Amino acid sequence: MNGVTVVSHPLVQHKLTIMRKKETSTAGFRRLLREISLLLGYEVTRELELTTTEIETPLQTMQAPTLEGKKLVFASVLRAGNGLLEGLLDLVPAARVAHVGLYRDHDTLEAIEYFFKAPSDLADRLVIVVDPMLATANSAISAVEKLKQRGATNLRFLCLLAAPEGIERFTKAHPDVPIFTASIDERLNEKGYIVPGLGDAGDRMYGTK
Ligand code: URA
């Protein structure tokens, strides 16, 4: 089973603390999310494979490292995933983007896909699925299923906060997909919120409450 990486960098932890505070404004929350996504993105791309290519510096030719393979894909789980996406695209501007939109059917509690758009050759690319909150893991599990159905085989999951219950369910469903997070919080509450958490990530980043 692939594991969970908690990104313990002091800047990540400091920024996360400010994001958790209930008095942090929408603008502040959004700015911090963008900043933190750069740092999380650094960690989730740490193991990318390199190849070498011959280049000419002003002084001589050299074999220089470049990323191997096709451009990676950031797959945003709508809508909150988009908050992580912006910073990640600053870090890897040539990355491709997938969007996965899911809603929960009130009767069956099943995650229903209402939007899916992704590069057609997912099988050839590393796919980094992004969603700030791994709570019940319902949408994360479904999003990864939908991506696998379209061919993805090499995936990672990146979030800001994770609940132990969500990690357990996600790793049971997708043991091949490693998780990267800034924190593993205490638990889920009875409403499915992560505690202590930071509230509803989508509402906090878009000011919709
Ligand atoms: N989604 C959120 O935005 N926050 C939570 O605490 C759980 C799920």
UniProtKB/TrEMBL annotation:
The keyword Transmembrane helix does not apply. Its EC number is 2.4.2.9. Keywords: Allosteric enzyme, Glycosyltransferase, GTP-binding, Magnesium, Nucleotide-binding, Transferase. GO terms for molecular function: GTP binding; magnesium ion binding; uracil phosphoribosyltransferase activity. GO terms for biological process: UMP salvage; uracil salvage. 5-phospho-alpha-D-ribose 1-diphosphate binds at residues 79, 104, 131-139, 200. One of its GO terms (cellular component) is cytoplasm. Pathway: Pyrimidine metabolism; UMP biosynthesis via salvage pathway; UMP from uracil: step 1/1. Uracil binds at residues 194, 199-201. Allosterically activated by GTP. Binds 1 Mg(2+) ion per subunit. The magnesium is bound as Mg-PRPP. Belongs to the UPRTase family. This is Uracil phosphoribosyltransferase. The lineage of its organism: Bacteria, Pseudomonadati, Pseudomonadota, Alphaproteobacteria, Hyphomicrobiales.
